[in-house]
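Read as chain and fold; for instance:
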Amino acid sequence: MQLKDDKYILLKTPTGITGLDDLTQGGIPKGRPTLVCGSAGCGKTLLAMQFLMNGITKYNENGVFMSFEESSDDLRTNVSSLGFDIEKLKEERKLVIEHVRVERSQLEQTGEYDLDGLFIRLGHAIDKIQAKRIVLDTIETLFSCFSNEAVLRSELRRLFNWIKSKGVTAVITAEKGMDSLTRQGLEEYVSDCVIILDNRVIDQVSTRRLRIVKYRGSTHGTNEYPFLIDEEGLSVLPITSLKLDNLVSSEIISTGVPGLNDMFLSGGLYRGSNILISGSAGTSKTTIASYFAHEQCKNGEKAIYFAFEESPQQLIRNMRSIGIDLEPHIKKGLLQIHSYRPTLNGLELHLLTLSKLIRDFKPKTVIIDPISNLISIGNPNEVNSMLVRLIDLLKLNNITALFTSLNPYANSDFAEDSISSLVDTWLAVRDVERAGERNRGLFIIKARGLAHSNKVREFIITSSGIKILDIEKGPDGILIGSERSVEPNKID
């Protein structure tokens, strides 16, 4: 504790793990033990090792990793996949790794089995490199030799008090019990901070989640939060940190579609706004989205295109047929196209993956085509919840976003129910059938803060791209298709 403004403030140690320090409002308690528990394969050891490695590389705090299961060679191999060189850190006297094989014969007997031998070994490692962080992985193996519950409880408290007396910040991993957070059911009561990891499967889709069960002396996020494990380690999406307090821009950017900018009196859209394009199949939603991405990249800005229906090669080929070449933008590093089926991950993992890619690439524009495919992995309420958090994330970073939504039927209201009230601008594209012809029409349903046309404009697609046609009136009203005095496909 530290006295500040006549109040005691709990000191914290940052973990360096993306999102976790946001949830804990600065990190785990400094100089105290934190318990990380969960079932097999949920990422306990990875979180602990990442906490230790980040301490060395980011905060200049040496660390000791004491393993009761994995050998030093196994740990070295696992950590090297994250880009950390354990051998180099050991040579620089910044890291000590101890592999302790726990057996009854190795524990000193003084009436009852105790941990004095462990304290001596761990204390020597801490003093050797002046460590500020330690990891014990996993505690069940350490206490497997204690059959007497009273002795177990006593030694457990003694271990935690010894850690506090050394002034080191500790992460201790533990296996999940049947009816308790841990197998012994005692560790969570003597720990100052308890984090539980979970890897659950719902409808054949696996999702990892993290929850802070308790944190003595500090407020913290209390919900379940999805987390991702990839080649860079573990990262968490702190949903509760997304608030409606983002800054806004008055800068106008072009849609890239010839004639569409003219439908807005401002000549385009606000930077950082959210745009929805909805319509039935074949109404050119993807084409308009590609125009938008192409325009931003032409201006030297980065864009990410998430395609749920086409591969990058297919999208590039199709757009090239109408005069839009996206490949040069990819080669210049201005455009990324990520294509996969929505069923690859659950909704929460999709959200976390999107946020991680956005954080790493730092685009000015994000396109998701189409959001309606997400309904295949969740009901409309779940999809809506995921999209709300995504839109908040984009607004927080002043990223312009364009979403497309497929309405399979004329009376489909997926877009309206799930996202239309959240977006700033809503464009609708639809088929207009008359006189045995199928023509395309476009109109603006809403545009917050932007004066706009209320006309339905016909448009065509030629080998040179989209053309939004001028309105032509006849005796019986607006003329479309072959009713015009000049056929649309002959217009320059």
